[in-house]
């Protein structure tokens, strides 16, 4: 298989027929499959099945029973299931022209690049189909900011927000990505060094239906940029620092009301563990919640680990201060740093560890000899 065309769909029923028709025409002579990764609530899957039956090009439908990671999660699931040497991601609403597909593939082969971006901002490209001047201005500005944040890794592209791009599957690692929101290309490019080539993209108006981009996607982009730049660990550290301050305030406040310092310390510890847990659930690991163990298990793991960690830390403080000449504040600082690292590792590796989500793949293969029976694959953490 030379080319897998990966198309995320969310309620795109009226666009499917023309899309498949035009992809089939555009990729004549290229060994191609189409992969729909569908999270729809309308009849898109039925339409895909019907349309697939009317065409010779192999069409696969991946329906996600429990969608995680939104559009980006869908794209990653599709890239994992893809079998082509190149996988090209494009939208399912015909804002991306299927006729651009061969140029993406050709560009990749000719340059030996790992990633080929179909860009609205090179000669021959345009974003006229982006609805409204405000949306266009926001798009321009976010590209500028994003490129400024990652000057080296995004050096090779003028459009890191594009939803139309190809990856050479042998060269691009999908592990370690945190898919969320709309900007999966940014996620891929910002995390590793790749060689990038570009082709022009004319971004057309939608054929039918409505865009799923909204304010929430804007906020998601802001969070994504922060995470990519500073890593999850700095948000975790900020919450940890907040917790430490709260701990001291509670300790002080309770003593004012006559509570003994040991009892006050216990209450402060429990309250800050609860506070930290709620904040990390909401702001640090929210994208991993859906794929992790249940909220109660997450809570008990956190409580047990953090409680044990602070008990051991206090004990270690006592032992070290008593047996060496090191200053207690210095020792405590070192212990807090170690404890913080262990807590972060435990949270990200154990508490929010992703279980594998089943994805149903209906192989609808008309006119193609390979692959017949429907299969179920289990892609690694999406
Ligand atoms: N499976 C799945 N799950 N597909 C989704 C989801 C989802 O949660 N949300 C959106 N999609 C699909 C849509 O059905 C469509 O095929 C494609 O993803 C793009 O969604 P649109 O809602 O049409 O997005 P847009 O046109 O506003 O944004 C496009 O252009 C941006 C550049 O301005 C996308 O290509 C963005 O990725 C791109 O950044
Ligand atoms: Mn669109």
TrEMBL record:
It is found in: Membrane. Its main location: membrane. This is Glycosyltransferase. It comes from Frondihabitans peucedani. Residues 236-351 form the GtrA/DPMS transmembrane domain. Signal peptide: none annotated. Residues 4-172 form the Glycosyltransferase 2-like domain. It is a multi-pass membrane protein. The keyword Transferase applies.
């Amino acid at each position: 298989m030379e080319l897998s065309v990966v198309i995320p769909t969310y309620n795109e029923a009226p666009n499917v027929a023309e899309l498949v028709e035009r992809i089939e025409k555009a990729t004549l002579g290229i060994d191609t499959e189409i992969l729909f990764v569908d999270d729809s609530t309308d009849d898109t899957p039925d339409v895909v099945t019907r349309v697939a039956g009317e065409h010779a090009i192999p069409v696969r439908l991946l329906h996600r029973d429990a969608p995680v990671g939104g559009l980006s999660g869908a794209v990653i699931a599709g890239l994992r299931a893809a079998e082509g040497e190149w996988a090209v991601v494009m939208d399912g609403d015909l804002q991306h022209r299927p006729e651009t597909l061969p140029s993406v593939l050709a560009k990749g082969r000719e340059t030996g690049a790992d990633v080929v971006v179909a860009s609205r901002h090179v000669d021959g490209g345009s974003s006229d189909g982006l609805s409204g001047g405000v949306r266009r201005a926001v798009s321009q500005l976010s590209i500028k900011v994003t490129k400024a944040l990652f000057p080296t890794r995004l050096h090779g592209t003028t459009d890191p927000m594009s939803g139309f791009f190809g990856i050479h599957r042998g060269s691009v690692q999908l592990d370690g990505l945190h898919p969320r929101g709309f900007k999966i290309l940014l996620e891929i490019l910002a995390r590793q060094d790749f060689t990038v080539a570009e082709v022009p993209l004319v971004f057309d108006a939608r054929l039918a239906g409505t865009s799923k981009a909204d304010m929430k996607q804007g906020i998601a982009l802001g969070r994504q940029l922060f995470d990519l730049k500073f890593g999850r660990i700095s948000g975790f550290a900020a919450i940890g620092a907040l917790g430490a301050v709260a701990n001291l305030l509670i300790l002080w406040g309770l003593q004012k009301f006559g509570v003994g310092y040991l009892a006050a310390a216990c209450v402060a510890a429990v309250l800050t563990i609860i506070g930290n847990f709620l904040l990390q659930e909401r702001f640090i690991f929210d994208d991993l919640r859906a794929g992790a163990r249940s909220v109660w298990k997450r809570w008990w793991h956190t409580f047990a680990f953090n409680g044990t960690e602070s008990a051991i830390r206090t004990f270690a403080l006592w032992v070290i201060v008593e047996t060496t000449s090191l200053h207690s504040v210095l020792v405590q600082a070192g212990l807090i740093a170690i404890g913080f690292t262990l807590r972060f590792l435990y949270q990200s590796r154990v508490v929010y560890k992703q279980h594998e989500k089943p994805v149903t793949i209906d192989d609808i293969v008309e006119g193609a000899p390979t692959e017949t029976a429907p299969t179920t694959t289990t892609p690694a953490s999406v």
